[in-house]
Amino acid sequence: MLILGQICLLGAFVAAGFATFTSWMGWYFDHRPLGKWAPRTALACLLLLTLVVLVLAQALVTKDFRFDYVARYSSQLLPWQYSLSALWVGQSGSLLLWAWMLNLLVIAFWQFPRRSSDALRLPAFALLMAFTCFLLTTMVFAANPIAAVSVPTFEGLGLSPLLQHPAMLIHPPIVFLGYAAWAIPCALAFAALLTGQLDGRWARQARPWALFAWAVLGSGILLGAQWAYEELGWGGYWGWDPVENGSLIPWLTGTALLHALMTWRHLGMMKKMSFGLAIGTFTMCNFATFLTRSGIFSSLHAFSQSPIGWLFFAMMVLLVAAGSMFLLLRRADLAAENSISSLLSREAMVWLSTVGLLLMAMATFLGTVCTALSQALVGHKIMVGPPFYNNTLIPIGLLILAATALAPLLQWGEAASITARRILAAAAVSGGLVAGLSAGLGLETGGRHVVPSVVTGIVVFALAVLACSLFLDARRRNPENGRLGMLQCLRERRSQYAGFLVHLGFFSLAFGITGSALSARHQDVEIEQGQTVNWGPRSIRLVEMVDRQLPDKRVAEAVLEVSDQHGDTFTVTPSQHLHLLQNLWTTEVAIHSDWRSDFYAILHGSAGEDRVRMTLIDNPRMRWLWLGGSVMLLGSVISLWPKLRRRQKKSNALPAPRTHQDAIRVDRLTKRFDGLPVLRRVGLRVAVGESVAIIGANGAGKTTFLRCLAGITGWDEGKLWWHGEPVKKRAAPGRSELRRNVSMIAHACQLYPNLTLLENLLFAARMSGLGQPRTQALGWLDRMGLLSQANWLPRRVSHGMRRRVSIARGLIHQPGILLLDEPFSGLDKQGRAWLTDLLADLQRQKKSICFTTHDRQQADQCADRILILLDGTLRSAGVSVEPARGQSQRRSA
Amino acid sequence: MTAAHKICLGGLAITMATTCLAYMGASSSWQFYMTVDELLDRPPSSRDYRVRLSGKVGQDSLQIEPDRHSASFILTGARSQLRVECRGPLPDNLIEGCDVVVEGQMESSGLFKGDQVMTRCASKYAASNHR
Fold it and tell me: Once rounded to an integer, what is the mean pLDDT over residues B85-100?
């Protein structure tokens, strides 16, 4: 098995190198066959790595001490599940795990989603395989997990009992998975910078991976904190140790990245910031690896100096240098498309939160590297303690909380409405009252610290804002049925409300952290059997001391009966275990948890006959901390969950255009207003795929004629056919298959003023019965170059932009016949050029177009034929038209 | 002044405030981090400074009180050693030969008085020739 493992490791190294080479060459030289080899070799690499993992896992479980790794980290008596967890305890094993997970994600990235841009996929893939190759290089040449033991042995060194905890089975793999996942947004960012595809496509692809990495890393951090709380027995869960900080920093910068990507998507802002954060977050993952393996940072984790740590430092330098260089080169293409519209806007709050998160990351980073920096600068190692972190992070955290609380009622790109401001003011008053009562009456904290009360107030404020936002949204959706409206909101804006759920979890997390970190109470006591000790609102009685002998350990327990001022009573049993093999004592704390606080008891040992010494800790709000983390994870899962594809009852496109030669045929159409003829026996034929322009003076009847052709206005005499089907004389309401094939785009844009641009298109899509209306609407906005303004109201955009949206609205259901009334009116030169191209494109798609215009030059450019409407009749330039006699139209000169 | 300018000014103010708070937090909580050899070779200028001292518990030197609330031992470095007395909760895995970190102050008598002792975590990222 040893030989097999070594061969597979070497094979994986070669395969990773080949995959890197072929993907680079395939992209750089645009060589498709070579590019196709890349994912195949990456898959081969994954299979070989999986074999290596299985070989090592099997060796650990079967206690095969021929493996050096097994001899170091396992022992005969170690339970099999903890033997397996030893896979990621050592340096080489953790590198193997990281490489395997990264390779797995790379394959997933290649496969999903299929609609991802090919232009970015291959270069990003090449970068990811390059990093996999880097990890395999370190393993093959510096930290081989499949090395043979130098001196044969029949027993290993074993695993510390402290690590024999369920959380240790999953915490390290989850953290490594998070680190590996952050490589993907970084690779996409570099791919975009390399290829010059800076239009935001990379951001759309990167976002789900960034959210996945963020959720996974956050879960890993929380699991580690829970392990520390339950297992290490000091009453806390976070010690600001460099290793802990190392995982926190990329999580903070990753949070900032998610919000920056959102701002780019909505407003085309924070482009450079997004790139910088994508690269920076992965750099910080490498920093986390560097500081656990370099040995130069003071930490309670036992490391010696290893050259591998410096390899990761070199990787960090490379990422920062390359990222900075590309950003500098591309800075002109990354100018923001908009600026912050108002202090009370969503982008302003995102900006503030991003600054806050970066400051938190910077402070944590400086606190972590303080020792190494101080030694370099002043010759002494100096380190900072929890007061540094608390002083810095708590005020920033409060700021971020407040900004997050405001978000649901604010809009992108515009100031908060009057209604929103009133609601915010009312919610702020409620929150302030609650905070004041909480602090004044010492409800939560006994008056010891005001920050928990402030957080309570902010949480109340946030809940009120969120509830009002949901209520308003629901009422807008469905004024008659609020409950249905709410369901519609949650379904159609799932991503947004999943984000608000994550925010709710964040509030709960902050509620828990501030309570436990700032208001915890400790008490050392000596207590005799049968004695009762009063501590604050609680009475603690030592009922009995119990000594038990188990096969592998001796257990000394203290049974405590605890009662509080409300009369509730519970029993906890802190204990000490003597592990016979290692001759080592471990403390097993006892925790009783409720929503108010955790009662935490640590048994230290005997203080005389029937007398014990213990530490009692009261940790307020701990449950809210764990709940908050779980809710944040749930919100992320909901956001990432793929949308269910409903059975398509509605088609995305209308039936194929009819093959009748004439799309429109008009015969002796006459229209009168109050007896006065506006249209006199007008005739027209428009062939399929033909474009006809109608020019005429103001009041000639152009609009009336178009409205008759659209079936919107009835006529007095004559006949009309669409693709050979007769149309009723009187304007008939309701929809029909035929009517859906005709679209009239009026002279006035006529967008709904209280609906956003996106909502205007959504309305049209739904009215037309299209399937996947949102996808259709977003696609058209993208085509019109208005994706960044999707959530803007019409009054905020220019006339030209409104014209585009009104055209998109008329085209969204892909009609075969297009009637446009003065489409060039109000457009500048650029707008006219754009519309000309669009009409040409539509004609290529065999759409039949009839448009009115004053501009003869524009008509010449866009139309196959030009007709003049004069005195109620249609004439071609210089020739009158008699379509009823079947005469062919002469093209205009 | 546009909203963007106001936001920038606000961000600057927040950064400056954070820097002040960070300085205040650092100045109230900083301590030297030294090995036994470093402490004896270049002790801090003032004995009032707190030190985080790392070393290994010397063989046959560990004495732990039955209540596990105080202990004394010899803390060894590469070349030197130092007598340490600790009062406070002791970690479970405090044994002779293990790596520890002790926080406290050096006394004029040459004794290091610690109020917190921590053992290094059991996870190992040791160099390949380390046992």
Answer: 82
